[in-house]
Amino acid sequence: MAEDSCTSSCAKFFCDAMLGRLALWLRTMGFDVLYERDIDDKALINRAISEERIILTRDTALVKRRILRHRFFFVHNDLLDEQLREVLGRFKPCRERFFSRCLRCNLLLTGVAKESVAGRVPPYVLRTETHFSMCKGCGRIYWPGTHTANMKKKIEGLLHG
Ligand SMILES: [Zn+2]
User: CA geometry: angle at 57 spanning 52 and 63, to 5°?
Assistant: First the structure.
């Protein structure tokens, strides 16, 4: 999908089965991140190579596969915040991409008119919010609420802390 290809230097990732939470946070920052809990190593590697993705992994056996060459980034830490620091220390996120992606599907969100989400979001949200976006994959509606503000704070802390 052309609209889903990141224009600048944003890296594309494939998180291994141990890094599901990391995958979600990277999606929050707008990175193109695949994550499939039950995928086997061979399928993961093949897909990462064909889609030019960097494999984020905690798996020491996986990174020894010669076919991988340098197409991986080994995550040393078990703690999520430290994992994020490791990845962000190497790969810079594009700020304009923050909160632009469906956390569930990894697809880019599309802006939708307020009128079109009536009945699909809680009434108080419809009253108080003006900007809505939608995922074409799962139909989930997103809006900038308190959750996003908290996430933003955490991300800024990670980028500057
Ligand atoms: Zn979605």
Answer: 80
